[in-house]
Amino acid sequence: MGSKLPSFICFVLFLTFPHSTLSGDVEALLSLKTALDAFDRLPWRKESGNELCTRWPGVKQCSPSGRVIKLVLEFLNLTGTLAAESLSPLDQLRVLSFKSNSISGEIPNLSVLPNLKSLYLNDNHFSGQIPASLASIHHLKTIVLSNNRLSGNIPSSFVRLAHLYSLQLQSNRLTGTIPALNQPTLRFLNLSDNNFSGEIPATRAFSHFNESSFLNNHDLCGAQIRRPCPKSQNFPPPPAKKPPFSSSHSRNTKKLAAIIAGSVAGFLLLLICLVLVLFMTFLKKRNAGKSKAIDVAPSTAAAGGGGGGGKAGFSWEGEGLGKLIFVGGVNGLYTLEDLLKASAETLGRGTVGSTYKAVMESGFIVTVKRLTETGPVSPEDFRRRMEDLGRLRHPNLVALRAYFQAREERLLVYDYFPNGSLFSLIHGSRPTGSGKPLHWTSCLKIAEDVATALLYLHQSGAIHGNLKSSNVLLGPDFESCLTDFSLLLHSPNSDHSSSSSLFYRAPECRNTIHCSSFSPPSDIYSFGVLLLELLTGKTPFQDLVDRHGAEIPAWVRAVREEEKEAGASADDSSASIGGDAVGEGKLAALIEIAMACLAGEPEMRPATKEVVRMVREARAEGAASVSSNSSGGGGGRGENNGHSPGRWSDTVQSLPREYGAENLSFAERN
Hints:
The protein is an alpha/beta fold. It is built from 17 helices and 23 strands.
């Protein structure tokens, strides 16, 4: 009997441990409410603590053990000050947002939240300095502290944040120099409307940002803002007075002057001869170059031939090719010569051109798109349009970095996205485009990313014009990023009716070879087709809307049910398509959004902002139910690491979802 007692005690402790940690989170949140919620905006009560993860507003996600990992308290007019003691029990938090409240005082020491990944304290009344202790939170990726009253420097310790992805500090009272952040993960930076001074660090990370990241810092200088830094002038002390030269010194000086004069004359004569030789060589090359054509297509050298070693590369011939033009106001870390020497790998051929992966000798990797048809667009119009596209920056857009044009050749340079496209995520390597439906959480995340990017484009006066799954790339955190936006508008004489992309296009854009019919409503129609592809795994090689018409909801459910039955013996079948009650509600919401977007008449389709609102509402409702059920159907997701396309949907489902709020606010601000 005595031997069984310790086991019984351990069993009791095991049963009570989750309850105790859950109770700790409840007590911490109630303490937070007491400190900040003077107007009782949060209906949190101790007696409803057992509903923490299902009914408490602001608790967006819990772990399988019931710990709060995502707390979003925005637009609630919260007041008072934050204390580290109130937050420290919430040590499992990944996402913390107090955006758009009236919280004041200093930002507390948040190192008590060791698992924090995303911090949103923007649009409050925080004052004092940015705590250097943030650098000790090793997982921290997103720091948004904009529109506060913060002063002092950016902590130099921020250079140690190895995973820093987004740093938003605009509209504060910050001073001093900017630390030399050089994290390769840094993708979004805004330090505008402060009082920074000195030179912007010339690091690789900072080279990707243009002047919009540094506006209204009058004492800043650097290449990014096209304001040269004044060179320090260190004047040497005046020479000491020397006694007058003697006659012997005078004679030696004359001899030295004669030697110097003779040397200079000889050097000038040699220089003139060298210039003549170079000029004659130039004339010979120019005459020979007249018969050469420019070839910018990647070519593969034969093994051992011409030193190619079997490596594919860009072959460029001819004189006076011009230069690589960087957009966004920042010169890059590579030149046209670097690009010419890069090895090239074909990634695909699409509607607007061929795409290549270019690996430079320095190891820098970019994506190069060669436009196949430029149409009657003048070089000046093309330049102006590329400058406009280069100014578009959004977390869900693939940024245009540079372009090149010479004669009939036009190349565009983008960042390289190694995770592939949404088409690959859904269909893998299947040539027929028949893939596996994604779980509804993945569908909603992708839909929000794409819709938010479209909203930013449309509010910026741009149109995508070629939205399809192969033009949605997956970022480093598997966020969805649009590429090839506004490029179809440069191929006005192209007729792509034989391409599957035809069935993504709105009816008013199919029977014309001109692009004047492309508009925000036509992008919304393409978005609706993309939603059907996410929900069914079927690429529109035929007109899905015309074929299924009003029966689309029944068809989508039938396809997903068929997939579920086909994989009934698999461990992850329910996780793949979402067969629970919550999933059925989400599925209905997604189908409703798709049907609204697929209206035949452009004026009947919802506005882009309305689409974003519908997707966000569908994603927000029932999020707590997801977290409370997250322990089921998720086994084995971590085993694949994204290598098996058939299981990528599970990988995306388990990804962090903290970027949605930032994306929408960015779009609304613009």
